[in-house]
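your task:
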Amino acid sequence: MKVIKDNRTSIASGATSMGQNINSNLLTGESEVKIDSIEFRNACGAFATGITVIVAMADSDMQGMTANGFMSVSLDPALIVISVGNNQKIHKTITKSGRYSVSILGESQAEVSNHFGGTLNPDLTIQFNDLEKTPYLSKHLAYFLAKVKSSYVEGDHTLFIGEVEEFGISNHEKPILFSMGQYKTITK
């Protein structure tokens, strides 16, 4: 594969006119392209996203994490996907339980995001619903309870496709956004 770089763009060539890639490295998972992971993360950070908290529980062990790797996949059936690092504690919990929840955060929940992102605040009180099955945050813009339908390991993350079994929406405030390593809010 030939990678052409300039200050504005990167273009990868190696595909036929029929859309088939003629580089066998794509089939084996090997890559000739070497990318600086910090720069790559910073570039991806230019894309503004909402913030979610993913929670899973197995054998009374509840794990949670802040994530922006979330999206809807299908309306019929209702499917969502989350992206979880393979070394995250919650990865094992989701794999074991086969279930997870996603709570979309509002603009007043930066501290909740920080807590589940690894900056633990022992004074923070967080309330959950559905502690018996699949816990989710009591305060949210929307929540989804999902059963894992399939999973795909890609690089250092796993994509968990979830079939939505329950969801709700509260719209009590504007969403919180994350871009370029900082929280943002919608002003209009």
Observations:
- Residues 1-24 have pLDDT under 50 and may be disordered.
- Residues 74 and 101 are 17 Å apart (CA to CA).
- The chain is about 15% helix and 45% strand.
